Amino acid sequence: MKRASKGQQRKSLVPGAIPPRHKAVHGLRIIGGKFKGRRIAYNGFVTVRPMRDIVREALFAHLAERVEGKHVYDLFAGTGALGLEALSRGAARVTFVERHYPTLETLRQNVASLGVENQCEIVFGDCFVWGRRLQAPVDDTPWLVFVCPPYAYFHSQPLAMRELLARLLELAPTGSIVVAEADNHFRGEALPENFTWHKRDYGQTVLWIATKE
């Protein structure tokens, strides 16, 4: 029997279908802080792209003590590795937003395994819709926001990405930091122009970081 091509297999996926998994599912771990070395689950779905350990380690080394006390927003959260890493390093609380239900269940499992349910809010929903509904905060606790969508969104939905990033920065208290993860083909076209973005290059992964002064 002739096998369908990869392109045909991708086209056969329907909304709500469980996506294929990577053949090899590698464990993730917390890199630093009080939970250093603790393993977190990864379901292996090809639609989930955890930030590579080497990039995550470099990012948190760059952020250093600026993580402490922040309200973290982990958008397109996937496994929750970024938000949980931030909690491990002294963040006050985390809001995770993820729209893929099987992945959301893995995220809940990871939060429970570290015993940090009381510091976490898990939102099941679309990040773009969530962003449009986001309200100004009731306190002035600075935010640390991770925006790590499928890389294709920066190329196929640049207006939606710009709107989301702009709203986050406009509503965020002074001292907040927004980190957007993209591929090395993205040149910053979808970034709001009225904020200063600093680029950190890690090969195929590029991080764009803005601080609200």
Distance between the termini: 62 Å
Spans with pLDDT under 50 lasting ≥5 residues? 1-25
Percentage beta strand: 15-25%
User: How many DSSP-defined strands?
Assistant: 9
Strands in their spatial order, largest beta sheet:
5-4-3-6-7-9-8
Structural class: alpha/beta
Average pLDDT: 89
Number of helices: 7
Portion of residues in helices? 25-40%
What's the story with the biggest beta sheet? 7 strands, mixed
Oligomer: single chain
* Overall 3D shape: globular
Helix-strand sequence = HEEHEHEHEHEHHEEE
The radius of gyration is 17 Å
Walk me through the topology.
Layout: H1 6-12, E1 28-29, E2 39-40, H2 53-63, E3 71-75, H3 81-88, E4 93-98, H4 101-114, E5 120-124, H5 127-133, E6 143-147, H6 152-156, H7 158-171, E7 177-183, E8 198-202, E9 205-211
Parallel strand pairs: 3-4, 3-6, 4-5, 6-7
Antiparallel strand pairs: 1-2, 7-9, 8-9
Helix pairs in contact: 5-7
